[in-house]
Amino acid sequence: MPNENIIENSTPENEQIEVIGVCFKDGGKTYYFAPNGNVAKSTDYAIVETARGLEFGRVCAPNKMVSTKDVVPPLKPVVRIATKEDIKTREEIKKKEADAIRICQQKVTAHQLEMKLIEAEYTFDMSKLTIYFTADGRIDFRELVKDLASTFKTRIQLHQIGIRDEAKFMGGLGVCGRQFCCSAFLPDFVQVSIKMAKEQNLSLNSAKISGACGRLMCCLRYEHEAYQEEIKLTPPVDSTVKTVDGVGTVVDINPIKGTIKVSINENVRTYHRDDVTVLSRKKAEKADD
């Protein structure tokens, strides 16, 4: 007897579902919600139901169809497209968040806790207040939470974040003169390693390749794949190659330009990698992540 439940619950890989994408912060991740009969524009704001309660967010992806494999069921609904009153309420909540961080700082000082407060965030229905903070280690803030709960008369969550998250929250300008990538458009932090700086022939001076957060700059990742592909096509340093001027040793490479510098009888000349023949290819040293 066939298992009818399996047939009924099976989902075709190409099945699609209608969603509305909402962002809660500038440059933040896009979260999908069920339209629930609402039609949104990219200029709209929306009130949505989340695990934390009602939230106010910006519509960053109006009604569209996406593959069911790209969503995590069950989808929470869009309660409504934000009205002028909702937008006004959100502005009032922002003022209360500013007051909350000030009061919370007073409580932290009173409890003598070594923690740096970053931001306070209310849900739209004011049912929960989340305080984001950084600290060097674990903090016992149980008494602080009790104190805050009795002060604000709502649920309190203290959430410890990392130094990169702090930069995303605070924002600012990078050494390039532009807004931090993390606060402008990066929805998630990607892994960045010193190997990427080495492959791009950048200075390994930490002051030059680190962002304001003190960690390696996120932009080191942007050209990583391109450099990896070009490096595969380029003879590494110390390889032996045959050129029109004779046999020599590769002393420097520029993978993006596709050029290499070759030492022949103590004379260094520049060639395009396509114009030489590799006689022995030294394996590139494994760079530390």
Q: Specify the structural class.
A: alpha+beta
Uncertain runs: 1-11, 285-289
Mean pLDDT across all amino acids = 87
Count the helices. How many?
8
Shape: elongated
Total number of β-strand segments?
Answer: 13
**Widest sheet, order of strands:** 2-1-4-3-5
Instruction: Determine the N-to-C terminus distance.
Output: 55 Å
Query: Which band does the percent of strand residues land in?
Result: 25-35%
Cα-atom radius of gyration: 27 Å
Q: What's the main sheet like?
A: 5 strands, antiparallel
Give me the oligomer status. Answer: single chain
Order of helices and strands: HEEEEEHEEHEHHHHHEEEEE
In percent, how helical is the residue content? 25-40%
Descriptive key words:
single chain; 289 residues; alpha+beta; five-stranded antiparallel β-sheet; disordered N terminus; disordered C terminus
Task: Explain how this protein is built.
With 289 residues, the chain is α+β, with helices and mostly antiparallel strands. It is built from eight helices and 13 strands. A five-stranded antiparallel sheet has the order 2-1-4-3-5. A five-stranded antiparallel sheet has the order 12-11-10-9-13, with no helix packed on it. The longest helix is centred in the middle third of the chain and has 27 residues, at 84-110. It is elongated and about 80 Å long. The N and C termini lie far apart (55 Å). Residues 1-11 and 285-289 have low confidence and may be disordered.
